[in-house]
Design brief:
The protein is mostly helical. The chain has one domain. It has eight helices and no strands. The chain is flat and about 45 Å long.
Length: about 180
């Protein structure tokens, strides 16, 4: 392959996707507000007093998918919950094996999480961040050990899912999920 052909591939092949209407924007906003808000309230009332959390940064990216890109295969329930659970487990294992080499732990955690999400048909891009948070999240996250994969990773994803089921199906033109498994 010639160098020119290599760079031509980066040009893309199609026009950008169409925009969305105000209604779609409003429903996406409402879902994200309620989903992240529910995780935050539950976290502050029930989890943080026990030195746990139900709110991690990767849920912001999950909210984009499950409230704003609801037809995407990456936003479906299996991917949302499974992706966070698998990635949480992998991230904790990577930290426990390579925590003395943080860069290695981060690279192993994210790359193995991607591979296992692909192998289990649970690919959810925010899962990469969930694995990374298990490595770089600090002493409180590290103290959770494998519980991190359950709470906050899987449990928070379930809260986002419950809100997505309610909000995404209120609007006549929206339907979620496309499939469960």
């Amino acid at each position: 392959m010639a160098v020119k052909d290599y760079f031509v591939k980066m040009k893309g092949t199609t026009a950008s996707p169409p925009g969305v209407g105000f209604g779609e924007i409003l429903w996406s906003w409402l879902g994200a507000f309620l989903g992240i808000g529910a995780c935050a309230v539950l976290s502050s009332r029930f989890f943080e007093p026990r030195d746990q959390t139900l709110l991690i940064g990767s849920f912001g990216a999950s909210a984009v998918l499950v409230y704003g890109a609801i037809k995407s295969p990456l936003a479906q329930p299996r991917n949302l919950v499974g992706g966070h659970l698998v990635s949480g487990l992998v991230g904790v294992a990577a930290y426990q094996l390579f925590g003395h080499l943080p860069g290695m732990a981060a690279a192993v955690g994210v790359s193995v999480a991607i591979a296992l999400m692909l192998a289990t048909k649970t690919l959810h891009p925010p899962g990469g961040a969930t694995a990374l948070i298990a490595v770089i999240g600090g002493p409180k996250v590290h103290a959770l050990g494998y519980l991190y994969a359950v709470v906050p990773a899987a449990a928070g994803a379930l809260v986002l899912l419950l809100i997505a089921l309610v909000v995404n199906n209120l609007a006549p033109g929206r339907r979620y999920p496309e499939y469960w498994w």
